[in-house]
Inverse folding.
C-alpha cells in the first residue's frame, strides 16, 4: 500500500475510535447520571446543560484515561 493510503487509513482509524469512544461515554452519562439527577431537563440560556456537562466530562475522561491509537500509526 502506498504511504498516502496508509495515512488515510490511520486518520480514519483514529477518528472512528475517537467518535465511538466519545459516543459511548456520552450516552452512558446521559442515560445514567442524567436520568438519576434529572440533568437532561435543565436549561442554561436556552441550551440544555447536559450537553455542556457530558461533552466536557467525556473529553476529560478520554484525555486522562484513554489512549487512542491505530494499527497504521508506524506504517507511514
Amino acid at each position: 500500500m502506498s504511504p498516502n493510503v496508509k495515512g488515510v487509513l490511520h486518520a480514519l482509524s483514529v477518528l472512528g475510535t475517537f467518535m465511538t469512544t466519545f459516543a459511548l461515554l456520552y450516552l452512558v452519562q446521559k442515560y445514567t447520571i442524567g436520568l438519576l439527577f434529572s440533568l437532561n431537563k435543565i436549561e442554561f440560556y436556552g441550551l440544555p446543560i447536559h450537553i455542556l456537562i457530558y461533552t466536557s466530562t467525556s473529553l476529560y475522561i478520554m484525555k486522562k484515561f484513554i489512549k487512542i491509537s491505530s494499527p497504521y500509526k508506524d506504517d507511514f
